[in-house]
Amino acid sequence: DYYATPYAAEIVNAFTNILFLYLGVKGIRSCRKNGHDAIFQVAFLGYLLVGLGSFLFHSTLKYPMQLVDELSMIYTTCLMCYATFSFSRPRSQCVILGAGLLSLAIFITLYYHYLQDPVFHQVAYGVLTAVVIFRSMWVMEVTLRPSLQRSRSHAKSGASGHALTTSGETVNDRDLRILNSMWVMVAYGLSTFLGGFFIWNLDNKYCSTLRIWRREIGLPWGILLEGHGWW
Fold it and tell me: Is the pTM higher than 0.85?
């Protein structure tokens, strides 16, 4: 700790969060530019908070900042749960969903503060993230795959999946092209996410060995062996 500067305890873990801050701002600007629902702007604001909280915690190693870091991950994932499950739902169901997720977030906060066990936080975050991922996959499929499509606005107006778009391709072909692109992004995102998690766990298991290697290699290349930084 504090090996590079007296102002940041874990400098690599702190400054890798600049990417989170950048992506949070970029996501908010993209939502505003393209007119997406406000819930997505709020979710990206949560993403921004995750980056800020993690930066402050790894800079100070203070318990209050640890709570900001870890609980903001829970809150942001709850927001994404709301965004994915409220899709095409009536307002009454959205209110019930929001109240349920708020209650869940409060329970996780209080119970985690009581236990102060990182494993509980990791399990809660992992379960919520898995729910968001699988729900998003399901929404992608039933919305875009022609064989699974439900009634949509253009179908109600008599449009056909074989109708041509302005680019000359059929609606079905367009939807399949978009769906395939989305699955590529899902595969890339999951491999990056799980790869970072795997490297972080290797860092936890072989911490002593990696610290020796980092000292032998020195700066700047020793930074590449900061496993938590990759996560």
Answer: no
